[in-house]
């Protein structure tokens, strides 16, 4: 019994040596970077219920995969509507890139103040950033 407790607590385990640590920017991102020009492949609207809409951009999003990811929303092969508030762009420049746009209308309208908090939360993650539509036109 003591041996099981020792193993579950992590006895005998040490931290990963510095030369074996995995760095997202250097080790992972090059493997998943997109190989084609970024474009919206489809979207899933939750505007009526949650005042959000997801743009599927990365190469991993086939029509079937997008449809399966959108069982609770309204699927479209077009982009989400324009959003003055902006959205959280997840894993930009990779095969799994997506943007969750926020709206000040719909089922749960998001205020500019709430969008500011959402932007802070989005920017706090290393794999995402808050964007405005105008930011995407600069590319």
Give structural notes.
With 139 residues, the protein is of the alpha+beta class. The chain has one domain. It is built from six helices and six strands. A six-stranded antiparallel beta sheet has the order 3-1-2-5-4-6. A hairpin with a 7-residue loop joins strand 4 and strand 5. The longest helix is centred in the C-terminal third of the chain and has 13 residues. It is globular. The N terminus is likely disordered.
Give the topology, please:
Layout: H1 2-9, H2 24-32, E1 42-45, H3 47-50, E2 52-56, H4 63-69, E3 74-76, E4 87-90, E5 98-102, H5 112-124, E6 128-131, H6 133-137
Antiparallel strand pairs: 1-2, 1-3, 2-5, 4-5, 4-6
Short description:
Helix content is 33%, strand content 18%.
Instruction: List the total number of helices.
Output: 6
Radius of gyration: 19 Å
Structural class: alpha+beta
Strand runs, count: 6
Measured as a percent range, the helix fraction is 25-40%
Please give the alpha-carbon distance between the first and last residues.
Answer: 59 Å
Shape: globular
Note the beta-strand portion: 15-25%
What does the largest sheet look like?
Answer: 6 strands, antiparallel
Strand/helix succession: HHEHEHEEEHEH
Question: Which short descriptors sum up this protein?
Answer:
single chain; 139 residues; alpha+beta; 6-stranded antiparallel sheet; 6 helices; globular; disordered N terminus
